[in-house]
UniProtKB/TrEMBL annotation:
Pfam families: Glyco_tran_WecG. Its EC number is 2.4.1.187. Catalyzes the conversion of GlcNAc-PP-undecaprenol into ManNAc-GlcNAc-PP-undecaprenol, the first committed lipid intermediate in the de novo synthesis of teichoic acid. InterPro entries: TagA_TarA, WecG_TagA_CpsF. It comes from Lederbergia citrisecunda. Transmembrane segments: none annotated. This is N-acetylglucosaminyldiphosphoundecaprenol N-acetyl-beta-D-mannosaminyltransferase. The lineage of its organism: Bacteria, Bacillati, Bacillota, Bacilli, Bacillales.
Length: 240
């Protein structure tokens, strides 16, 4: 069985969240360096306009379907993906794994106060997890000291919250220098971990309406939703 589904040039993993977590656990145990991208329609549409970003995403080991739009797109293409695998859920499950197995985790990104608060919350919620290090996300991208700090932490998992496309570009640029680790861009997740931004309640998420909740609670983001119709149009054109 083919285990990838191509959507507008990106090979998405045909996986449930649980299978993805099991795969990652296995990779961590074997120190297998891994780059994971969680992509939504906005990211796909951005990559179609930025070839360097497209190449970066294509270099990832796993691309997971973070967004109801991607699932819808896979259905339109008659190659349905099993379920939405939200980046934030993968992050939370990996924090649980890290807590169970006393793994070393690095947190890079978000504002200084946000990352400090997020790390404090993580320390109390996941007491066995080892904080390999953390740093806010407003540094000069050409500053090599950040990459060195991450490398020297020898972390099992590195979460990078710089927003897209920055976070994936940063991971790809530094990937070869790291000896091991699971590297994943996590967008605004640290803002949620710090308690600054609330996630949609479970029922909304189950109904695939997280996007609507975000739209209502963070109306400034509404413009970002405008890419969805363009994404669907592009899928339909590809089908023809
Ligand atoms: N951010 C950062 N450095 C930057 C730009 C953004 O650390 O140079 C952080 C920002 O503070 C926020 C996250 O990256 O915590 C972006 O969140 P958003 O929800 O906008 O992510 P996206 O959906 O764009 O991936």
């Amino acid at each position: 069985m083919k285990n990838k589904v191509n959507i507008l040039g990106l090979d998405f993993d045909k996986t449930t969240k649980q299978d993805m977590i099991n795969t990652l656990k296995h990779k961590i145990q074997h120190h297998k360096k891994t780059f994971i991208v969680t992509a939504n329609p906005e990211i796909v549409m951005y990559a179609l306009k930025d070839q360097e970003y497209m190449n970066t995403l294509q270099s990832a080991d796993h691309i997971i379907a973070d967004g109801a739009g991607i699932i819808m797109g896979s259905k339109l293409l008659k190659t349905p993906l099993p379920e939405r695998v939200a980046g934030f859920d993968v992050l939370k499950d990996l924090l649980d794994v890290a807590n169970e197995e006393a793994l070393n985790v690095f947190f890079l990104g978000a504002g200084k106060k946000v990352i400090e608060q997020a790390v404090q919350n993580i320390k109390s919620e996941y007491p066995n997890l080892v904080i390999g290090g953390y740093h806010h996300g407003f540094f000069n991208e050409h500053d090599p000291s950040i990459g060195e700090m991450v490398k020297n932490s020898n972390s099992d998992i590195v979460f990078v919250a710089l927003g897209f496309p920055k976070q994936e570009k940063w991971i790809a640029k530094n990937f070869d220098t790291f000896a091991k680790g699971i590297f994943m861009g996590v967008g605004g997740s640290f803002d949620i971990l710090a308690g600054k931004v609330k996630r949609a309640p479970l029922l909304w998420r189950k109904l695939n309406l997280e996007w609507l909740y975000r739209l209502i609670t963070q109306p400034a983001r509404w413009k970002r939703m405008l890419v969805i119709p363009a994404f669907v149009k592009q899928i339909i054109e590809t089908k023809k």
